[in-house]
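Alanine dehydrogenase
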Amino acid sequence: MIIGVPKEIKNNENRVAVTPAGVTEFRRYGHTVYVQASAGQGSGFSDHEYIEAGAQLLDTIGEIYDIAEMIVKVKEPIASEYPLIKENQLLFTYFHFASSEELTHAMIERKAVCLAYETVERADRSLPLLVPMSEVAGRMAIQEGAKYLEKPMGGRGILLGGVAGVKPADVLVLGGGIVGTEAAKMAAGLGAHVTIMDISLPRLRYLEDIMPANVDTVMSNEYNIRRHIQHSDIIIGGVLIPGAKAPSLITRDMLKLMRPGTVMVDVAIDQGGCFETSHATTHQDPTYVVDDVVHYCVANMPGAVPYTSTLALTNSTLPYALQLANLGWQLACARSEELLKGLNIVNGKIVYQGVSDAFGLPYVPVQEVLDSSSSINK
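Tokens:
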């Protein structure tokens, strides 16, 4: 198969989807890999390293899309990439369709095969390609929250861990999944008082067992959220409904309950955000203020630490990318329930229920489209 690795062009996105080590693996199985010049530079990988690994370099993103059967990316295509995408071309990347109707319609129109990292799902319902970036984003959420809690950054002017004789900051974490767990561990390790909320009692029992003494677990509901935001200094939004839009747990009217300079970090922003007042920001312009509350809503948080993020991501994605390259997407998805669940849009049809529900668009069962595609290609 011919694999294309374009340079990421989203604002301040420095990750790359395939490392030189990944190129070596693709080449070992006889595949051809084209990498756009300087694609790995932001993550610390030179063009020379890619050439040594067996990749062929192309100068422009257009050349990559034009020649590749499978495009492997990190972030979803942006508007300037839409016209480059070909019918039947396989795109393997994060899409987060439920947060962007424009992207959804564009991929339907291009009739591409869109296999989303974030909905590849194991039998135990874990999301192996979302986990590494959730770990990074959860840990970063505390770093960023602590920074913007400083007075010059618009926050309340509180040191996260406090000092002797001065109480530490109160951190509220909404969601006890990977993001929430990593955020709580980081905040607790820095000495903050942490409250983590989730709707699953078994998950809260687990967190109660593994977390240090400065972490409390509380059942998530509107009453408890309203009560806790009144004294929280940092609020981390880390809820997830796989493939669907995130629920709004903090509404606009709740902001008046918070103290001026409270910092809200919405890690769920790439799925539409879990705060009603959230809208996506960039690393270049990461925050804004609503009702004296600082909002940090960067949609590609791990892009700020690209070396760590690229290695963490590609460790997880490469085995799946090799399956797709070795077998072709139809056979790979037929044999792997995990990859099958990653299919979101195929040749103009939405095959993932969460995307269909987000915009009220027609849904076609994935198996029906897979059977149809397989018969056409026989």
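The chain has two domains: 2-127+306-376, 131-304.
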